[in-house]
Amino acid sequence: MSSNRGVSHRILVIDDDKSITSFLRRALSYSGYSVDVKENGQLGLQSALESPPDLVVLDIMMPGLDGYEVCRRLRAAGDVPILMLTARDEIRDRVRGLDVGADDYLVKPFALEELQARIRALLRRREPEAPLQVLHYSDLDVETGSRDVRRGDRKIGLTAKEYDLLTTFLRQPRQVLSREYLLERVWGFNFEAETHVLEVYVGYLRQKLEAGGEPRLIHTVRGAGYVLRE
Q1: Buried b / exposed e across 116-132, counting CB within 10 Å, b at 16+?
Q2: Residue among 184, 161, 164 nearest 83 (CA)
Q3: What number of other Cβ atoms are within 10 A of residue 20's Cβ?
Q4: d(Cα 183, Cα 197) in Å, to the nearest integer?
Q5: Model confidence over 132-149: pLDDT tens digits?
Q6: How far apart are CA 48 and CA 56, in angstroms?
Q7: Which band of pLDDT confidence, cut at 50, 70 and 90, is reported for residue 91?
Q8: Check: CATH 1.25.40.10 for 134-228?
Q9: Quick one: which of 143, 123, 125, 147 has its CA closest to 134?
Q10: Could you give the CA distance from residue 174 to residue 198 in angstroms, rounded to a whole number?
């Protein structure tokens, strides 16, 4: 187990399995994180809303308020990174988790090293970018310091993952970006091809970017990937 002492990020673990929470508290604390544990969805949601953590590790199958509903409410309230844990490995279950706003998922049983790598990847993408940098293409502007996104005069609210995907396109306009490249850049590792997570998030971006009737900017290149172009 690799130590990462000195890291001050606070992680909230929401899971009703005491063996899992005990293990995660020890392992993540050893890696330098501050770890809070809540044993059900209602307590976890209340804690996250009252004192937002840097990242949430969220079980899905819990009595009462399940992980899907907790995730949906957390995402409606803000953009805290959410890593879902699930004992169910059906594609539809994973896609549902991503649809309600999770940034990542991990199937139980899992390897600690993989969990830690995914946590590091999610936290890296939360680090502040250079202030006052503006990414511009056509009538689309992103101010990376404030994460302000506008199309013309219209302000657009994006989730953390939608923002990461859009800025990846904006840094390489008019270039066809492969599915594998986008998954690696935005999610930090390769998802199974069947999950369609990239297609789901491209769809989310298109809906928001075109909500005012504007022409499409993110185009599908059949068999090759996606491209940002007019």
Answers
A1: bebbebbbebeeeeeee
A2: 161
A3: 18
A4: 9
A5: 688 999 999 999 888 899
A6: 8
A7: confident
A8: no
A9: 143
A10: 19
pLDDT at 131: 57
Can you give the residue ranges of every domain in the chain?
10-124, 134-228
Confidence of residue 3 (pLDDT cuts 50, 70, 90): very low
- pLDDT tens per residue, range 22-68: 999 999 998 889 999 999 999 999 999 999 999 999 999 898 899 99
Give the model's pLDDT for residue 151.
95
CATH topology classification for 10-124:
Rossmann fold (3.40.50)
What does the alpha-carbon distance between residue 134 and residue 144 come to, in Å, rounded to a whole number? 6
Asked if 13 and 39 count as a contact pair (C-beta separation under 8 A), the reply is no
User: Are 10-124 and 134-228 in the same CATH fold?
Assistant: no
Contact between 152 and 210 (Cβ < 8 Å): no
**Cα–Cα separations (whole angstroms), residue 143 to 103, 136, 156, 168, 190:** 22, 9, 12, 14, 28
Q: Which two tokens stand for residue 187?
A: 């999610």
Say if residue 104's pLDDT is above 90.
no
